[in-house]
Amino acid sequence: xxxxxxxxxxxxxxxxxxxxxxxxxxxxxxxxxxxxxxxxxxxxxxxxxxxxxxxxxxxxxxxxxxxxxxxxxxxxxxxxxxxxxxxxxxxxxxxxxxxxxxxxxxxxxxxxxxxxxxxxxxxxxxxxxxxxxxxxxxxxxxxxxxxxxxxxxxxxxxxxxxxxxxxxxxxxxxxxxxxxxxxxxxxxxxxxxxxxxxxxxxxxxxxxxxxxxxxxxxxxxxxxxxxxxxxxxxxxxxxxxxxxxxxxxxxxxxxxxxxxxxxxxxxxxxxxxxxxxxxxxxxxxxxxxxxxxxxxxxxxxxxxxxxxxxxxxxxxxxxxxxxxxxxxxxxxxxxxxxxxxxxxxxxxxxxxxxxxxxxxxxxxxxxxxxxxxxxxxxxxxxxxxxxxxxxxxxxxxxxxxxxxxxxxxxxxxxxxxxxxxxxxxxxxxxxxxxxxxxxxxxxxxxxxxxxxxxxxxxxxxxxxxxxxxxxxxxxxxxxxxxxxxxxxxxxxxxxxxxxxxxxxxxxxxxxxxxxxxxxxxxxxxxxxxxxxxxxxxxxxxxxxxxxxxxxxxxxxxxxxxxxxxxxxxxxxxxxxxxxxxxxxxxxxxxxxxxxxxxxxxxxxxxxxxxxx
Length: 612
Known about the structure:
The chain is mainly alpha-helical. The chain is built from 26 helices and 2 strands. It has a two-stranded antiparallel ribbon. Helix 9 crosses helix 14 (299-331) and helix 9 (170-219) crosses helix 18. The longest helix is centred in the first third of the chain and has 50 residues, at 170-219. Its main location: membrane. It catalyses: L-proline(in) + Na(+)(in) = L-proline(out) + Na(+)(out).
């Protein structure tokens, strides 16, 4: 499809602007590692919150989410629990506060704060670096798959080529070009560049999202939606089985549901809840979420930043997602059927943009989605080099390295990680397979050790090391092993096995080695103030400091988490109900949103000011 000159001009102007911002901020970012990776802890919390929200607008995730709304309707609101999407609520309510109190630069550095600098602490430190690098490579591969599919729908030049015997499709070449631009501005500007471009991106995307919602509302009637979807498509509440039969309307979608493995929806939801509680309590993985928390000025600002992320993200994002899904359902079946046996439902988003978005808005939306990809990608490649440079090179190789050398090595680390991630991405099967592996297998290996590190005083560095190592190995070995006996088993059902391996390794590694030094534990407990099983440490702290007040907020935090998950869900389903013509349900969702917002104001927001 040929874009108009107006649309091409908007996209090109955005790309030039991002490069300009990166080079303009490079002097400020290159001052030292703290400036490069954390913005010197001087960036205001609301800019970080907008940046964090913006980073969740990535193209790959948006294409996948449009696809699941298209296929599963309102029940699709549960499927992002795979990540789980409500891990942000745990972070908002208490984890951001606990983490920011550490005053560290990276998740690996935080591990030293928790376990000390003995053998267990050093091994834990190294395994977190390994996990951070593996997860970033996985996400880069995920981004490569999404941006390539997206770009070839709008840019029609044939750029396919062969390099060193490897044939690259146009899809892959477009992905490489966009990734190269993103890598350059991120390397130059560091966290300052990431946040500045993502705030700009958020403003662009919000305008584009609202525009798409208006277009869909004006072009699709409730009657048209009802005529093209099966019974149950507009029902939110799941049964044990999915009970969504597309046979008389779009039979190929039944094959898609079978391939996804979501027919037993009740079992799927139970697995997502199990995985979600552990993964959320574990806290942010060592990537861009954690980096933004550590970049805030105070613990209370870290909590407010995380809350703002959810508040500003879901309604505009789902206006766009729901808009494209209903437009696709009503108008795009003939276009999709032209693909024949190779029908790809992940193309609903780009096809809908091509057919329904007018000149000008199309350029704005494309610039915004490219910005979304670039912003999220940039956040990952800003976070990961901190682990290689600060946590490996500076700590173990050259503690006296100059700031100039460390920043230069950060550039090199970014480049190496991008190249390796691209190599994996070129061989990815689909967005769905990458999504399921990252969310269920890889993060499944992360959960057990990272839950225990918060709540159990006896848990030590050796236990953490063995738990993480067991989880990483299990995330690679267990899924293919299970599929030998259960062909087609999806990763979320394999999660309990990976969790069991990691938990067993964590507990045995802890019990067969000595506890951490009490002095290290007291410093961590007194500064972080977590709740959990900390009685021996708490008693020691209170002997030294009778004025110390232990954390007694578990019940309030649990209540706020439950309210927060409901609050977040109401913002997801409100635009979906509205655009599908379920207006009475939309009003109920609005009421739930207002009610939960009031509860969070009194039971969460009013208390975080005392957390610094």
